[in-house]
Structure formats: C-alpha cells, structure tokens
Amino acid sequence: MTAPLPDAQLQHRYETAKTLATEAARLAELAYRQRDTLVVEHKGDELQDLVSIVDKQTEAFIKQTLAEAFPEDGFLGEETGAADLDARCIWVVDPIDGTSCFVNGLHSWCVSIGLLVDGKAAIGVIADAVHGELFHARSGHGAWLNDQPMRVRDVPDVRHGVMGMGTNHRDGKEHFIPVLSQLLEQGGTFIRNGSGALMTAYVAAGRLIGYYETHINSWDCLAGLVMVAEAGGRDNDFLRGNGLLSGNPLLVAGPQVYAQVAAMVGPTLDA
C-alpha cells in the first residue's frame, strides 16, 4: 500500500492553490473590465460553448505556475487537456468557469482549481474576483469562505430554500425537465447562474440547498466537491467510472434534500 502523501506537501499545495487562484482571478478581472476588446471563439459547432482569449491565457498562467512548483504532478485543464494522469497528484483546472457570463458582462464567473490525490478529491479552491470571495477546502481541514467556516444548509425538504439547477446540450439534457417539474410540484424553486463551480460552492456555503446538473465536466465541479464534503453535504460519487475525463451527472446537497432530489432524478443519477 502506498504511504499517504506527507501533510506538509498537501498543505504546500493548498496554500499555493489559494494564492494562485486569487492571482489568476485578479488578472482575469482586469480583462473582464475591458471585455469589449476580447477575442471570443466558439468550440466546435456549439454556439453556446464559448472560449475567450482570457480562458487560454489564464489556464496557461495556472499551468505554468503549477508545473514550476510541482513538476511531478499531473494536470487536466478545460483548454489544454490532460497530461501525466498517472501521477499521484493531478490538478484539475477551469481557468474561467462561466465564460458565457464573463463575455456578456454577467458577474457569475470564477477561477476553479481542484486537486486529486491518489484518485480522491483533496483540495478545492474557487476564486470569485468580482465579489472578493475565495471559497476553499482541504479534505479533513474544513471548508472556508475567505476566513469564515462554511456549512451546508441541512433543511427538511426543497420548500425551505433555493436549488441550483443546470443542463446543457450534451447527454442527459432529456432528464432536466422531468426533474424540474417534480421540484416545482413539490414546492421548490431554483436558479441557474451559468457557473457550475460557483453553484457547487454556494451549496457548501449554505446559500443553495442543493445543485443538480444533468451532465458536468470534472473541471467545473471538482474543487466544489471537496468543499461540499467538508461542509457536511453529500454528492453522488461524481468521479465514478470515467468521470474525471468524460464527466457525469452531479447532485450535491444537504443530507435531507439530497435524498429528496435523488429520488426525483432516479437511476440516471448514478448511471
């Protein structure tokens, strides 16, 4: 059996991730304030799937900084793909989660940096420069918003708060309307803000009682998964199968709401 990574090494990565996410978000915000000058492209044939020059520059900055600090670590980024995935530590990065919001002047975007250690989500950092918020967590060390601890809202059912809901044009979209209908029938309400990373962090912070997405990529939610777990919430084993590279459905919530919404989604949640 492989010995656990030394605590000092994990803490070093945690502190580096917090500093790096903050700096990357600050640099991205400078471009956000001048977004009318940005070059924006479409990914493939999906007109709603955007990438800006800021996404590419921000990921390059994060990737280079991590490679210099931890050359033995692997990397998976939305823009540049995977490298050294056989490493014990793998950084999972979305340089701008919420690109559509970013380029359209909406404030729901962030920088997300997560770390897998021996296949398990161990560190998560999400930097929201517009609102001056840094969400962060390390497995076994709690979840924090800036310097305040975070806890999920463990309410009895969906009538007692706001759910985050999301879908896209990929596999699983056909499940969205049936779940949304049940949520409304059972007295719930919902938002979709355009950033899966932020909505996952909002569950950890107790702002949302849960978040369901029909299909999401690992770089959009890995950092938030650490936060939700450390804040007392539940998730649906997102990394099962090939979740790291291909994504999966996602549900995160307080324990009671989790059970209620999982029943609405049914077996497709863990298919």
Uncertain ranges: none
Number of strands: 15
Overall body shape: globular
Q: Span between N and C termini?
A: 30 Å
CATH class of the largest domain: Alpha Beta
Would you list the SSEs in sequence order as H and E? HEEHEEEHEEEEEEHEHEHEHEH
CATH H-level superfamily of the largest domain: Fructose-1,6-Bisphosphatase, subunit A, domain 1
- Supply the number of structural domains: 2
Work out the helix count: 8
Q: What percent strand?
A: 25-35%
As a percent range, the share of helical residues equals: 25-40%
Query: If classified by CATH, what would the architecture of the largest domain be?
Result: 2-Layer Sandwich
What is the rounded Rg? 18 Å
* Strand order within the widest beta sheet: 4-3-5-6-7-8-9-10
Q: Which class best fits the helix and strand makeup?
A: alpha+beta
Reported for the largest beta sheet, the result is:
8 strands, mixed
What oligomeric state do these chains adopt? single chain
Output the keywords.
271 residues; alpha+beta; Fructose-1,6-Bisphosphatase, Chain A, domain 1; D-Maltodextrin-Binding Protein, domain 2; 2 domains; eight-stranded mixed β-sheet; 8 helices; 35% helix
